[in-house]
Write a structure and sequence with these properties.
Lipocalin
């Protein structure tokens, strides 16, 4: 079996990248392509958030969503940064990526009434991170 080497180049601009929030929404949408619906509809309900410690509350298509920041869980020691990247691979097929923006939060949502599932997902992610840290330390 032959080995293949792939080189990745990551480019960041000297200008500070804008920050974004990634939303992991639990729904099936039979549509592929861009939409402005997410940008305009996922606004946090700060009054409702007072009832949910360390969670975010928003609404999508009339349904209440409750979420937690995955990036905060991954970034306990401030060693992790997340980026939105654009593939700028050239003709010679050298893999290159350009940083488009920095992720400030990555929020994983579940529908209201399904918060146990959200807690379970976050617990499993925490366990995965702990095992990974043990393996790589």
């Amino acid at each position: 079996m032959s080995e293949q080497t792939v080189e990745y180049n990551f480019k960041t601009s000297s200008i500070e990248n804008p920050t974004e929030i990634a939303h992991l929404v639990p729904c099936i949408i039979h549509f592929n392509g861009q939409s402005d619906e997410i940008k305009t509809n996922l606004k946090f309900d700060q009054e409702e958030e007072k009832n949910h410690t360390n969670k975010f509350v928003t609404y999508f298509r009339g349904r209440k969503l409750i979420g937690q920041d995955v990036l905060k869980l991954l970034n306990e020691n401030n060693k992790v940064k997340a980026f939105v990247m654009e593939d700028t691979t050239n003709i010679q097929n050298n893999k290159q990526f350009h940083v488009v923006s920095t992720l400030d939060k990555v929020i994983n949502y579940e529908r209201e009434g399904n918060e146990d599932r959200l807690d379970m997902e976050m617990s499993k992610l925490r366990e995965f991170i702990d095992v990974t840290n043990l393996i790589h330390s």
